[in-house]
Design brief:
- The protein has eight helices and three strands.
- By secondary structure, it is mainly alpha-helical.
- Helix 1 runs antiparallel to helix 2.
- The chain is globular.
Length: about 250
């Protein structure tokens, strides 16, 4: 989406309304808790708190998410563990655990009984511009779906550390899981996000999002310096392989 150059006066107006939206989010979420009568049950206090923190840290999202609307309820349900089975947090982290700028979001997998999981979304896009509400919302929905793969990805990592996956197998298996998250994301965009934003006459999601087949989806990633090699391949070469070389005795899982 192209950014429209605004006059100084319009920038002030925009900042004023963004501030108002933040105040409303902070106050109303405390005074008027979201009803738990959503089709997904959730701990409203924890889930609402994470949604409120996210919208305060990423105020552009207030253009598309309203307190108590279906998008808010879905997000609060995810944060409170409605799909994952355990709660996870919103993090205002910008570094995304060292990911390159082409990545807008990241999740940290929960370690049961030791540390909770979290998701984070960059405030700025890869060009250094303030990310728009549409990109932020897309990334939020995706990371909420991607964290559902955390146990499977942890299993793949154990296999790779044990020498049971080579680099290409490691990349292929992780990419398949991310495609599944992509497909689930489109389902949420169509069933939950789309109807809400269309009621507001937003130009975002005016049509149904079509999910391509895995092979068609993968064709868009042809740059060997980009996804998935830039993350999954690099992680294998820089983290997994050195560990295996250092520890010659095969770990048992």
């Amino acid at each position: 989406m192209e950014y429209i150059k605004m006059t100084y006066q319009s920038q002030i107006i925009k900042s004023f309304f963004s501030l108002c939206a933040i105040v409303i989010v902070f106050a109303s979420a405390s005074l008027c808790p979201v009803s738990s009568q959503s089709h997904i049950s959730y701990n409203s206090q924890f889930g609402d708190n994470q949604m409120r923190k996210m919208l305060i840290d990423r105020p552009e999202l207030t253009k598309l998410i309203g307190i108590g609307d279906p998008i808010w309820k879905w997000g609060a349900a995810q944060y409170s563990g409605g799909s994952l089975g355990e709660p996870f947090y919103w993090s205002n982290e910008e570094n995304l655990s060292g990911k390159s700028k082409e990545y807008q979001g990241h999740y940290h997998a929960p370690i049961k009984g030791k540390e909770p999981g979290y998701i984070c979304i960059r405030k700025y896009d890869k060009e250094g511009k303030l990310a728009d509400a549409e990109d932020l919302l897309d990334t939020f929905v995706f990371e909420c779906n991607n964290i559902l793969n955390s146990s499977k990805m942890q299993y793949l990592e154990r296999l790779a550390y044990a020498g049971k996956l080579n680099e290409q197998q490691w990349i292929d298996e992780n990419v398949k899981l991310e495609y599944e998250a992509f497909a689930r994301t489109n389902n949420v965009l169509n069933k939950i996000v789309g109807p809400v934003v269309r009621q507001r006459r937003s130009a975002y999601l005016t049509d149904t999002v079509v999910t391509p087949s895995f092979s068609e989806w993968l064709k868009q990633y042809s740059d060997p310096n980009g996804y998935p090699w830039s993350y999954w391949g690099r992680h294998y070469r820089e983290v997994i392989l050195p560990y295996r070389l250092k520890n010659t005795q095969t770990r048992k899982y």
